[in-house]
């Protein structure tokens, strides 16, 4: 069976490339040796043209799964269109599903649980989500099925992230953003990560690039998990991560400057001036902005740059919907002088 042999450190990137051009054979399992991984491919000729050497190796078929079904398709006969809008916005974090059940459909909780278990048979916990509260942005959850825990290990972008959802913030939907930033960063950079949480951004950046990251987080529980996460991933990380527990507004002014500053800013906090002050080349600043105020947000950044005597270029990227007409956005700020 055709496959290509790649170094473990390269495997994630090559797999994405193969998937993108439609030549990755997802029906078979990759195989590991000490330092390499054999990735199954579909079109040896096309893969050869990309410069990879084809090897012939036996790779087992994946078991047939029913994961192709979506929760929506499983529930569509029992739920109205309106109800499905709530139900389909769920997250899976490790072996925990987090679902949104407004009071109007509480009486259908049993069907939602059954539907989730059909689509994701590996789940061990299903929890219903409340709101983010307090400075640490922790959500309230009630467990509606399974084991009585909110601790799990989530896998994304080739790293393992241990979380305890009863004590820390974690958002699996930012997976794409973390990968994007890891691709933008260059080997050798000094990076400051504000509001670091359990270190998802830091781990993904350090997984892909040989960077030196200083991460600052106030929540002691998140810092403890962050330290565990560095240990959990130590064999996979190219870069280094140092985590400091404390308030960014007290700690960061005492630190030196950095090539790149990343601020996954908690809602209602303004750390723009702090982030810009500490950055020499790039800032990635997350904020919640109404669609009519995107230009005003950009102008605010440019004014802040000017005050600091910095010339900046700003690009605003919508990252996710927050509520109707309000987006979570990332301002990619390039510092020119
Ligand atoms: C929106 S969450 C982002 C966490 C993490 N970056 C992630 O994406 O999972 C914001 C984080 O900032 C932390 N935080 C809030 N205020 C802080 C402060 N003044 N200094 C340091 N961390 C703070 C919270 O505890 C929380 O972990």
Automatic annotation (TrEMBL):
EC top class named in words: transferase
Under catalytic activity, the entry for this protein gives: guanosine(37) in tRNA + S-adenosyl-L-methionine = N(1)-methylguanosine(37) in tRNA + S-adenosyl-L-homocysteine + H(+)
Q: Which NCBIfam families match?
A: tRNAMtaseTaw22
Q: Which residues form the SAM-dependent methyltransferase TRM5/TYW2-type domain?
A: 90-337
Output this protein's name.
Answer: tRNA (guanine(37)-N(1))-methyltransferase
Native organism: Thermococcus argininiproducens
Which SUPFAM superfamilies would you find in this protein's record? Answer: S-adenosyl-L-methionine-dependent methyltransferases (SSF53335)
- A Gene Ontology CC term for this entry? cytoplasm
